[in-house]
Design goal:
126 residues; mainly alpha; 0% strand
Length: 126
């Protein structure tokens, strides 16, 4: 089970407000607030989404640009981001990742991975 601390750290790692994070996950601001204050727990599906997002941010295969990820979440929601990540060849090892992977198997392209990568020039400056 993902803890309230892990949820808050995940949101903060992305540089998202509770409202931005809530919108990306398709829940209300108050839901995220309750998760982070340990007054409520995500549903099983929501927890799978959070774990998949955490795995994506902690992926050792590629340096994920949290700002790009935040923008993508705002545009596509969590399902779209996870689908693109899997299509790009990133591994998401939970039931949600496995389900999406089975749907898009064989459609991966290397260029999709660039959506998640940190800009090399930008990363070298820091």
């Amino acid at each position: 089970m993902i803890s309230s601390k892990e949820i808050r750290e995940l949101r903060e790692k992305m540089g998202a407000t509770q409202a931005e994070f809530a919108k990306a996950l398709g829940v209300s601001f108050s839901t995220v607030s309750r998760w982070e204050s340990d007054k409520a727990q995500p549903t099983d599906t929501q927890e799978e989404q959070l774990i998949a997002l955490k795995q994506l941010l902690e992926n050792k295969e590629v340096a994920i640009d949290a700002k790009k990820l935040k923008k993508m979440l705002a545009l596509m929601g969590i399902g779209g981001v996870i689908a693109i990540a899997i299509a790009a060849g990133l591994s998401i090892s939970n039931p949600l990742g496995a389900a999406i992977s089975s749907l898009i198997k064989g459609s991966a392209t290397g260029k999709l991975l660039d959506l998640f990568k940190k800009n090399k020039k930008h990363a070298d400056k820091h």
